[in-house]
What we know:
Aspartate Aminotransferase, domain 1, pyridoxal phosphate (chains A, B, C, D), lyase (chains A, B, C, D), 39% helix, Low_specificity_L-TA_bact (chains A, B, C, D), alpha/beta, Aspartate Aminotransferase, domain 2, 11 strands, homotetramer
Amino acid sequence: MYFASDNWAGAHQSIAQRLLEASAGFASAYGTSDLDKKVEARFCEVFEREVAVFFVATGTAANSLSLASVQRPGGVTFCHSEAHVIEDECGAPEFFSGSARLVAVPGESGKIDPARLSAKISSFPEDAVHHGRASAITITQATEIGTVYSLPEIGEISAIAKKRSLALHMDGARFANALVALGATPAEMTWKRGVDMLSFGGTKNGCWCAEAIVFFNPDRAKEMPFIRKRAAQLFSKSRFIAAQFDAYFKNDLWLDLARHANSMADGLRGGIGASNCARLAWPTASNEVFAVVTKSAARTAENRGATFYEWPVPAATPDLVEGNETLIRLVTSFATTKADVDGFLKCLAT
Amino acid sequence: MYFASDNWAGAHQSIAQRLLEASAGFASAYGTSDLDKKVEARFCEVFEREVAVFFVATGTAANSLSLASVQRPGGVTFCHSEAHVIEDECGAPEFFSGSARLVAVPGESGKIDPARLSAKISSFPEDAVHHGRASAITITQATEIGTVYSLPEIGEISAIAKKRSLALHMDGARFANALVALGATPAEMTWKRGVDMLSFGGTKNGCWCAEAIVFFNPDRAKEMPFIRKRAAQLFSKSRFIAAQFDAYFKNDLWLDLARHANSMADGLRGGIGASNCARLAWPTASNEVFAVVTKSAARTAENRGATFYEWPVPAATPDLVEGNETLIRLVTSFATTKADVDGFLKCLAT
Amino acid sequence: MYFASDNWAGAHQSIAQRLLEASAGFASAYGTSDLDKKVEARFCEVFEREVAVFFVATGTAANSLSLASVQRPGGVTFCHSEAHVIEDECGAPEFFSGSARLVAVPGESGKIDPARLSAKISSFPEDAVHHGRASAITITQATEIGTVYSLPEIGEISAIAKKRSLALHMDGARFANALVALGATPAEMTWKRGVDMLSFGGTKNGCWCAEAIVFFNPDRAKEMPFIRKRAAQLFSKSRFIAAQFDAYFKNDLWLDLARHANSMADGLRGGIGASNCARLAWPTASNEVFAVVTKSAARTAENRGATFYEWPVPAATPDLVEGNETLIRLVTSFATTKADVDGFLKCLAT
Amino acid sequence: MYFASDNWAGAHQSIAQRLLEASAGFASAYGTSDLDKKVEARFCEVFEREVAVFFVATGTAANSLSLASVQRPGGVTFCHSEAHVIEDECGAPEFFSGSARLVAVPGESGKIDPARLSAKISSFPEDAVHHGRASAITITQATEIGTVYSLPEIGEISAIAKKRSLALHMDGARFANALVALGATPAEMTWKRGVDMLSFGGTKNGCWCAEAIVFFNPDRAKEMPFIRKRAAQLFSKSRFIAAQFDAYFKNDLWLDLARHANSMADGLRGGIGASNCARLAWPTASNEVFAVVTKSAARTAENRGATFYEWPVPAATPDLVEGNETLIRLVTSFATTKADVDGFLKCLAT
């Protein structure tokens, strides 16, 4: 009953097996091998257009280098107040971009509020040398709290970005989970809605270590080879990433894995909704579930071997949790089983 | 006949197999799993003392973050003129250390000349605010041109470092190859000779992606967790690195792989020494061989499928190569076969 | 009727005259001259203890380098939401500190709210590598909106800082104005209340360009000579700063100038309080006055030659201003005359 | 007999007096005042074209920010081995440009050797992600050792720059001294010979503190307002710089001051050439003179109150100085008198 995080799972067997196969033989290094090229072409197919792809080691790297590539001196990036970039990356986005600032924009359901975004941006007039200047917006899909931007919602953020010529980045650490939740195509959820750059995450969805930066306009990626190398993120045996993505995309494995994880989360959502000693903290649509449970039920679950994180109560809803309750986060993955879900839900039934 | 680089090989079967095994099951993330802990303990055994270990994605990261951890404003690191840090890392060492400068020190055989090092260091007097200030020395073992520092040579550099309280770093991208060449223990080649920090490379010696920073005094590693995370080098599924090192150290596999690579290089050295249309450019002791070959022999080898890099003639020895000759670099690895070596040598026999 | 900013004034005659005198003769460069030494000693007298003093070119430099000197990888500095460092310095504080983040803490009257500060700090637990880590607090005295921290209020912030071993910095761009408003000594308003570092501003109070970083514990200033030089802030003819401070401190000129500026602001405050078409937006104690005035009165004043800035209505008090009104900022300086004040107040009488 | 450096002098009376005059009255801040505008226009006249001008606090700032404005990730700037940027700025040029590396190119007489420059540049092929990439060249005029590039020599460096589209920067800390030595116009010595950016120094030639970055193509200066502000180099009372330049340019005062300094150096050169116990170390053309003098003569001069620096013997000419001799540097300035020169020369006559 491992619900602590989707990065507690290992690697899916098809992916691990593919890596084993790729381990034999020789290939040119630093992303120039045939397998690297093949996978890059596969990315173009997946996104239905020519894209520029850069493998990196971590999601933090994907976010930070994407944002670094569009920064200017005194630049500012707008993100949601609870975004991974501002909460969980130890200042890496600022570090890689010559100290460009992250400006937090609040919004319900873990999503940037468009009106507050516009207001915030307009507090940075063009050429206002003291304040710094608006450079980019980053949104997280699926969000840190399990919700998903609808396609029109992405379009709305994008329209704001375009009005001020800001680059729009999507943190897709859980891209696949959002994609299958929406039933959209990769193209529809990104460049067709105005996204310029994507952190495409495979690690949380069944890979060992497979993260890619995707530029939808390859012309804007010209600095990236140097930004990546200077960031110590260019793998010599790059095909060990390529091999993982090769299996990941094969027969749409990635979508199957995300559907499985979401479906396991559906199971949790259903059971929690029906429980007497638990309730959903807020609706989610991906592989994360936030629940208010009685402390005794939480202890029972832990005693039976469940792992999960207690979560801080959001400042905006201080009354969400009563004295004998606690807020917990449950994350499912490709490796979650129905037995795990059922076992957990049984803990809530006592 | 792949002699282009040791990073053109894939992963050794024992390592790839271990990774496959590790792919099942759940484990806590970010380096906190049991397997991570086990491998850290293994590092302590290998080095015969308590060490602090940090996995990172690339050798460039290992070098850059090691050096960043000992930098001060205006700091300067001394390296050999042909060191990887100054020649092949796109400015990453400077980038991660707040722009600390690399100062090149020449020396024969790819090794820093101690007298010239001392002279260079003394051009940076303490408290000379305009010049910057000496902070660290980095040596490469084995060197970029295939040679190996003897233990006394390391001690000599170390003595210079201690005199000015400079940190001493070793770039061990080919650590194992140097180790077996010297017949030394890991402890003897590092902290017993005054090395403070090591970039311990596994990738070039049979891993997919396994690099570690080793601090021989764990007290000096206190900033490193933050430096690493801010550098986007903290893996979530860190055990995919741990699993590789687990197999790497098991039954001294790493030493066997390095011995094999060095022995294949010995084969090349012997054959080239005996050839009429080739000669060794300089003596080497590890898995790199530099040879002056006739252009026609080089073309023959390429036509028969050999891969290798032509190498720039060192500025210090402009007469090394005659008009009808070229300087080439040949690198062997765990995956090099005797058939490859023999096949290549046959090209020199025509 | 120049009320736009205290940096629209030139230099006080005594200071300008002292600079003229100092222009003759030779003196050693880079802060080593007798005059530099004399002024450094004067700083020690003014603050009643041994201090380390570093002249820099701008207030932004003083703030940024002070904060840079106490930063660590992943470090975070807490400041008020409207602080100059976060609003008006184009990211310089982050740039000079290797991208350490500024975290805004709200609070009434332009002052950090201690309870919210404590809460914010505790969201950065020690050793939480993902979040970054608390490193410093900076307060502005007088604040950006004209208010002044009382001595106990400074002590309260300081106690919070000490509890977590955070460095406490004071942005004293208007240090003298706050000092005379409180009737305190320089020592009482700084190190006796736990302040570690001070940006001591002379420019806004009658100098041409005279800013100094003051460390109350000189042992903590050991990196600063290198930080300052690397930041291109070490003046060769440093005595041109020293000469200004020499006159500034002589016969307590600096306190007289600040008293004059504050007294001119008192005149404005009195007149505005008594006006029919204006009122004070909030109470202030230094040389800044914020007033809600009718738009017609504002136009009248402008037409008669008054300069001032219209100010954004604070988000916390959206109802401060009615439709026919506007919020303006008035800043007085050593150069403001009673005639200017009276002239301006007359515009409000129509 | 102050020959230690031209920055040991104070400010010329006309400049100091102009500053005194400017101290009265009010003016808008941050470089927007009428006087700022007037001086910017004066720069356009001086350089016979539209230029963009940015005042900064130090020569190090002028150099560092100029170079930062043309840097790219992994970028490399070529400079002479003894250039101020690489010898005396504590890493500031790298710090402000996101760690772009300085690559030293040797050359006789303190000037970059064009052939060696070309060779060095070609070791950085386009798109070679590991090496970094050529971005800029910087030359110093007059050089650190008192020599001056002829106009054709500047043109030759410039042609190399253009071939690879590298920006060409001139460090003009002693611009005026070089200009009058060549008898050239400002335009001829800069943009007409392909210089893109200039650090225009006034401090060493009679100002207190007056340094400007000049862009000959204002379109390339668009990032500079933000780069300067983020670097904490935007003065609030900017007119205190403007006033100095106003006097500096008036009636060609700047050229007169430089002519005087050079002429005093001529006096030294003549006397040293004729001396029995001294000789010129190498020919110089500006206000710096390098002399080999007997140790006893040097001591005599010091005892009589002369100040100067002993200089390290260049590595390329180890035999320059005999056992009983020492190499010294003598720098003249606007404030040097004929009596000082004669007094010094008398010390050599004993």
